[in-house]
Amino acid sequence: MDRFRKTAQELLLRAGVKINGGNSWDIQVNNPDFYRRVLAGGSLALGESYMDGWWDCRNLDEFFTRIFRAELEKKVSTWSLLIPYLKASILNLQSRSRAFHIGKVHYDIGNDLYETMLDKRMTYTCGYWKDAKTLEDAQDAKLDLVCRKIGLKKGDRVLDIGCGWGSFAKYAAEKYGAKVTGITVSKEQAVLARKRCKGLPVTVRLQDYRDVDGQFDHIISLGMFEHVGYKNYRAYMEVAHRCLKDGGLFLLHTIGGNLSVKATDAWIDKYIFPNSLLPSVKQIAASIEGLFVMEDWHNFGADYDRTLMAWFKNFDDGWQNLKSSYDERFYRMWKYYLLACAGTFRARKNQLWQIVLSKKGVAGGYVRIS
Predict the structure, then answer these.
(1) Nearest residue to 20 (alpha-carbon basis) of 34, 37, 41
(2) Residue 131's CB: how many other CB atoms inside 10 A?
(3) Superfamily of domain 100-326+349-358
């Protein structure tokens, strides 16, 4: 056995994963150069080698759950991993001039993909599974939870920062009679959101958050803060503060990490969410200091595991209808993305937070809603 395979085997055994083993989370190696490649290239090489068919695993979600619980990502350090951190330290990767890049490379890749993968409302954020049995129920429950947390009433004007395909805007307008202004940096999202919200008091703008003006009774942001970047957290909160009426509430729904970092995983950055970053509790707290009162902080990150598994099932079941537009390498990439992310939440490496903020504090105190 060469030294690269031996080293890889010893590392994987710490997570209870065997090479060519019989468990559903064990990996099957198809190319003997896999070991050298991954030990030299870390997480980027692990993902790329999977996309290239160099290894397989029956249950990738279980594989990654074990990898993250054992914190193996900390055991493999390569010089290539320093590059994203140096770039993020020197440059503002989420500057105004770069704002629309994520829209082009991720959200614009094909509405057919997202219509297949997501629920009927096309809600591309974590569902709320407290009393739900299906993805549809979980997403409706999440949207209603948001409306109830901000005390939404008929006629209220709401700003939706990162409105996606209009799922919240349509729900809030139909169910609560709200008037919603949604902004997105994705052209495809904007076109479809306008179509889906036609006839409702909903306006959808192709716009960076830094360019928003006007004042609103409430502000919500579901799954957009992950694209803001640590150098812009304060500026983002200042925009929200400027646009929120004094008696209103701002609900921030975001994936969060357990540590404060400056750059994201190299594979995720290259293939899925370029220039993305998961905030930490510390970073969010610093960004709101002096601007907002933190009224409530709700963590239901375990629900993202179930949401991602439901998305993967929809994607996998619908692949026959998608394969004429996307190749096999894309299938392996998207499968790896969804199931690796499920593993991060199952291992509790990543969290999902809903944070309710007010400008001056709710008189008498905010009553928590769940």
Answers:
(1) 34
(2) 8
(3) Vaccinia Virus protein VP39 (3.40.50.150)
Q: How far apart are the first and last CA of the chain?
A: 54
Q: Got the DSSP string for 102-142? A: HIIIIITS-HHHHHHHS-TT---S----SS-SSHHHHHHHH
Domain boundaries, given as residue ranges, for the chain: 3-77, 100-326+349-358
Q: Which residue has the tokens 């591309």?
A: 124
Q: Which residue has the tokens 């949207």?
A: 143
Q: Supply the pLDDT for residue 78.
A: 58
Average pLDDT over every residue of 341-353: 98
Strands, E assignment, 185-290:
202-206, 216-222, 244-257
Secondary element (H or E) of residue 294: strand 293-299
Is this prediction's pTM over 0.90?
A: yes
Mind listing the pLDDT tens digit for each residue in 222-249? 999 999 999 999 999 999 999 999 999 9
Active-site entry in 57, 163, 197, 341: 341
What is the Cα–Cα distance from 66 to 45, expressed in whole angstroms? Answer: 18
pLDDT digits (tens, 9 = 90+) for 42-74: 999 999 999 999 999 999 999 999 999 999 887
CA 328 to chain centre: 24
pLDDT of residue 326: 97
| Residue type for position 306 | R
CA 55, 60, 62, 65 torsion-angle sign: positive
- Residue 341 designated active-site: yes
pLDDT band at 288 (very low <50, low <70, confident <90, very high): very high
